């Protein structure tokens, strides 16, 4: 797949940062590209699946993702999404001497402070010197905040990917493994074996994770646990709550 450089950022070294706000529709894809700057991705609404460094991250409104300069990445939009991308120059990154993980792709929890700083960069309420300090503070937070687990490995095999995409992008949660194996033109046994090989998860476990990640956008929109459970094909709200705790390590309400 060809890789392009994205020349979106527009800032000088004195400023050190810039940002873009983009609206995406569910199913849109931004193909492989890279930036000269570091990039912090945050969705104020919606869920994205980002691929970088041979791994995939699910980015709901409760997470932000750091992508280092020159790192090739792409993303697919799992639901209607409002993206905020903050681009940071190498000189500003260097000014944050505590940012030891600046060369690593990683997620952080989008705490109230992180959200306020990002939102503040996209308003006219602060002057340029203050916004530079806000961008630096974001980098400081990136260097201090523990990574948040939000990985959903997609299959590498094109046939398996086609089946997994049908499940996730079209929300076909009640589709059986037999039907997905048909989509992949495989026997059920081959599908099961190769899915485990490609993702490191059994199909059943992977589907459970995929459903929980799909729920994050609904939770951000204040949809009730009961509605989410039935919308995602769980037998009851208690089953959804147990699965959520198993995958995310906390309850849906606490998250």
Automatic annotation (TrEMBL):
InterPro entries tied to this protein: AraC-bd, Homeodomain-like_sf, HTH_AraC, HTH_AraC-typ_CS, RmlC-like_jellyroll, RmlC_Cupin_sf
Organism (species): Kosakonia sacchari
Classification via CDD domains: cupin_NimR-like_N
Keywords for this protein: DNA-binding, Transcription, Transcription regulation
Protein name: Helix-turn-helix transcriptional regulator
Record domain HTH araC/xylS-type: where: 158-255
Transcription as UniProt keyword: yes
Keyword check for Transcription: yes
